[in-house]
Amino acid sequence: MSQTDFSVISLASIAGFDAEADVLVCGFGGAGGSAAVEAAKAGASVILYERASGAGGSTGMSSCEMYLGGSGGTSLQKTLGFEDSTENFIAYLEKAMGVRGDPEKIRLYAEGATDHFEWVRTLGVPYKDAVMLEREVVPLTDESLLFTGNERTLEFKDVAAPVPRGHVPSHEGDFGGRMFIDALTSAVVEAGVDVQYDSRVMHLIVDESDRVAGLAVKQDNQLRYVKASRGVVLTSGGFIMNDEMRKRYLPDNHKWATPYGNPFDMGDGIKLGQAAGGYTINMDEAFVSLPIYPPSKLTFGILVNQRGERFVNEDAYLARLAHHASLQPNQQLYLLVDADNFDHPMYIERLDVVATGDTIEELAAEAGIFPAGALEQTVAYFNQHAKQGVDPKFRKAPEWLSPLEKGPYGLLDLSFDKQTAVIMPGTKGPLTFTLGGLDTLPTGEVKRWNGGIVEGLYAAGRVTAGLPRSSEGYSSGMSVGDATFFGRIAGRQAASQ
Asked: 72, exposed or middle or buried, with CB in 10 Å at 0-12, 13-18, 19+?
């Protein structure tokens, strides 16, 4: 049997086990650590396996924003004067996820998010009673609350009152993920979890009824068999680093985006779950980033494609901007700014100025990109309505509407093949990670294609299709919030068997 085919092993074929525990957790990122802690607190013996030499996963690489609200607001939201009802939170999430959303997961998350925040605080993760109201991605100062999605765009304000829901650990600089993982690791150790690093899970073990009864793990180049008396929890991340899977499930994304994740986001957990009968959904969706802000004043500019046409409201969140940009011909796009709002996006390493001009006509002629008169027509239409404080075509919010009338003008090239991210210097294209995986019940139980479940198998985090299902509706903090929230539930559920 190949050690890389991830096929299941029959329990009857195992002569003896090298170890045994009530619950086995596969992957020590935010989801796995949370699952292990809760399973142990529920009275189960737990072994946590991690392929890397230390804890972290993709959560450890993140800012550790968590998208939280509902129940009147988290303690941080309330302290800072923000109210967020559960129904308001649900309305936003349902709008964000659209037809791909899971109503049961959305409701459960919205009802439990405030308690989840208090749990994170009990780990010792620090939050400051300060809000960042500027248009930001993550505060590099020490504020802990900010808007991290489309809350303030008119399309979303139609269904939900805007509330800042991005909760980020307080620290100057982007170190939240490491702070959280360090705190979670301490909790895992204190809970008595047996943590095994440098351990790659290769196979699930199933009994005669197809119930998952253990796993085979490669340690020190040896395959060891471990029995799970209650359940196995898969928390080993997505598949963004697996080139073969990206080509299969995300063929367009594969051509123009740069994978962002930890090196072991290879889809192992997804393949393990599939081999045991688990069903996958949403495999064709991925987060994509287009950080044209900060500085926020760039929002006053307009984004156009190679036809000189606008295609999105520029005040949308970076993932929504990227989604609509990805649909443009050849993923070619440009930001037109005037003298009042010209600057360089903070999170893009290098940006080409395609053309400048004292008039739009001069700029268009120098650029030599657009059909004759197209850009001039687009700007004239935009300016006409911006003067009246409206954007009939894309509904950009009034606070970001200002006619482009002050020369000189600049045309910035934001085409995907020209983008280079600050956080991954030298790469080309927007950053991306996957949003598809095993289909699970809100309890974490892995579903089969026919609606049944794989007995004894649970999953959480990016190994699943969790709360966030699309880049178009993504808000930063949904992934870590989802992974830790549903990781805790999966751990408790496994321990209860």
From this structure: middle
Q: Is 151 helix (H, G, I), strand (E, B) or coil?
A: coil
Q: Where among 142, 173, 204 does a domain terminate?
A: 173
Taking CA atoms, 219 is separated from 140, 397, 455, in Å, by 40, 55, 26
Tokens of 228: 């799970």
Q: What is d(CA 408, CA 363) in angstroms, rounded to the nearest whole number?
A: 9
**248, 274 contact by CB (below 8 A):** no
- Rg over alpha carbons for the chain, rounded to the nearest Å, is 24
461 and 364 in a single domain? The answer is no
Name the region of 358 (left: φ>0; alpha: ψ -120 to 50; beta: rest): alpha
Cβ atoms 79, 114 nearer than 8 A: no
Instruction: Give the mean pLDDT of 213-242.
Output: 97
70/160 same-domain check: yes
Distances (CA, A) of 350 to 95, 141, 169, 317, 346: 34, 23, 29, 21, 10
Amino acid at 226: V
pLDDT at 419: 85
| Sequence-separated (6 or more) residues with CB below 8 Å from residue 263 | 52, 241
Instruction: Tell me the DSSP string of 371-393.
Output: PTTHHHHHHHHHHHHHTTT--TT
> Does residue 3 surpass a pLDDT of 60?
no
Between CA 270 and CA 438 the distance in angstroms is 6
Mean predicted confidence (pLDDT) in 391-419 = 95
The structural domain count of the chain equals 3
The residue assigned the tokens 């925040």 is: 117
In terms of C-beta density within 10 A (0-12 exposed, 13-18 middle, 19 or more buried), how is residue 226 classed? buried
pLDDT in tens, 279-335: 999 999 999 999 898 899 999 999 999 999 999 999 999 999 999 999 999 999 999
In tens, the pLDDT along 18-76 reads 999 999 999 999 999 999 999 999 999 999 999 999 999 999 999 999 999 999 999 99
User: Any idea what the CATH number is for the domain that residue 364 is in?
Assistant: 3.90.700.10
457 CB contacts (<8 Å, ≥6 apart)? Answer: 204, 212, 231, 232, 234, 273, 276, 278, 445, 446
For 487, phi and psi rounded to 5 degrees? Answer: -65, -45
> In 42-85, where does DSSP find H-type helix?
57-61, 75-79
